[in-house]
Design a protein that fits this description.
Structural class: mainly beta
Shape: globular
Distance between the termini: 36 Å
Radius of gyration: 25 Å
Number of helices: 0
């Protein structure tokens, strides 16, 4: 839904782990509440969860007593491990639906966040938070945010002084490397979380197991309230900073609108995937939001090359009031073989980012009929999946060119179209 808008600014990049916030990676997680008491929270031990258990420890330093209560929540199950752009022989280790970030106690409520299965056939994962009244043993809010095709893992939560909720997490999909994101909800909004807001996009494919056969990914994110500004929080969230290299992105986050003008696109890049030359892709929408208090004025859009089209571009100058939105629709129609790249540049009066750039990419390919009396072969993934013709007398190969996949197996000639067809074994399932 379109609940509260999240904005971010003042960021740094770290490539070493930092204990920015005290985080308990064990089950249960513990948080101190009012003086003389502490709370421990753990998720359900069953494959299908229908409750959290809240333990109350009273007088922990003198005569401790402990009581527990099962708090009913919306049914959930453990999420699958995430994939990523470019795939790999190991998926990310998401560590299931465990509570990896410490709950937060504020204003007589416990705020708890974790990942759950979501999307078509539960093949993806969402971030889900539950606000609990530990004194009455009931859930006050129970909200999930996800989208089919996306994996959201290792979330961390912090309500600000206004009870606005801010959550940071990692996210990937088949067209996106693992990156750092935030989402949130204003206290005055209906139940729900905002769409994901990019803190730092992933910059490469990541598969490293250090000999363990686990593509381990950080185990947690961190978040903490700014000690001088109770309306701001600081996050530290893992992302891929280069191929097989992780980094930690630290950012200061506030719930919008903030003073001034802030042009906030809901995505930083679009990969349209592979399309046959001359064939249009599905339309992909970008939503531009003004997360500032003042009016955003878009003065112009950059011209795009022949492969990318902005459908029905809005007239300029285009004014967008505070928290207003503008939807831009783009389509990819390759006119040649190979990788195509461009950027949609949005020029505006956003003083901090007057030229907002959306990276566009896609790959064009075309079919060439097999020739009668010619033998063909494809190479494996060790050299990028190329196609050759073979000399039947000597077995020598002549390179024809690259395919659009790293590896093609079971090569055949289609009996009707005469096109070469095969199986692409990449990813979680083979594709013809």
């Amino acid at each position: 839904n379109t609940a509260g808008k999240v904005t971010w600014f003042d960021f740094w990049d770290f490539h070493e782990p930092s204990n920015f916030a005290l985080v308990f990676g064990l089950r249960p997680s513990i948080i101190f509440g009012n003086p003389g008491a502490a709370f421990l929270v753990n998720e359900s031990p069953f494959s299908i969860g229908t409750f959290f258990t809240v333990w109350t420890v009273k007088n922990p330093l003198s005569t401790p007593t402990i009581t527990g209560v099962d708090v009913p929540v919306v049914q959930y199950s453990s999420p699958p491990d995430p994939n990523q752009l470019g795939g790999g022989n190991l998926l990310f280790d998401a560590a299931g639906s465990d509570i990896h970030n410490e709950p937060v106690y504020r204003d007589s409520s416990l705020w708890v966040v974790h990942s759950i299965a979501s999307g078509a056939n539960n093949d993806y994962s969402a971030v889900r938070y539950v606000r609990i009244d530990p004194f009455q043993g009931k859930a006050l809010e129970d909200v999930a945010m996800g989208l089919t095709g996306y994996w959201h893992i290792y979330p961390a939560i912090m309500p600000d002084k206004h009870r606005n909720v801010i959550i940071t997490f990692c996210r990937s999909n088949l067209f996106e490397y693992m990156g750092a994101f935030v989402s949130g909800r204003r206290a005055i909004d209906p139940a729900g979380l905002s769409p994901s807001v990019t803190i730092q996009s992933g910059l490469g494919n990541y598969v490293k197991d250090f000999g363990t056969r686990r593509n381990r990914w950080g185990d947690y994110s961190g978040i903490a309230l700014d000690p001088a500004d109770g309306s701001a929080v600081w996050t530290h969230t893992e992302y891929v900073s280069a191929k097989d290299t992780w980094g930690t992105w630290v950012s200061k986050v506030k719930m919008g609108p903030i003073p001034g003008v802030l042009l906030n696109p809901d995505r930083q890049a679009i990969n349209f995937g592979k399309k046959e030359v001359g064939t249009a892709s599905d339309t992909v929408a970008i939503t531009i939001t003004n997360d500032g208090q003042d009016t955003l004025v878009i003065s112009s859009f950059s011209s795009l090359n022949q492969h990318f089209t902005l459908i029905g571009p809005p007239g300029t100058p285009r004014k967008i009031e505070s928290l207003g939105t503008l939807v831009l629709n783009l389509v990819f129609t390759p006119h040649a073989n190979g990788d195509m790249i461009d950027s949609l540049v949005i020029n505006s009066n956003d003083a901090n980012n007057p030229k907002t750039s959306i990276a566009l990419s896609g790959k064009g390919f075309s079919f060439t009929n097999a020739q009668l009396g010619t033998l063909y072969a494809t190479s494996g993934n060790s050299d990028g999946g190329r196609i050759f013709s073979l000399n039947p007398s000597f077995g020598t190969a002549t390179l024809i060119g690259p395919t659009t996949s790293n590896q093609i197996t079971s090569l055949r000639v289609h009996p009707t179209t005469k096109a070469l067809i095969g199986i692409d074994p990449a990813g979680s399932a083979a594709n013809t």
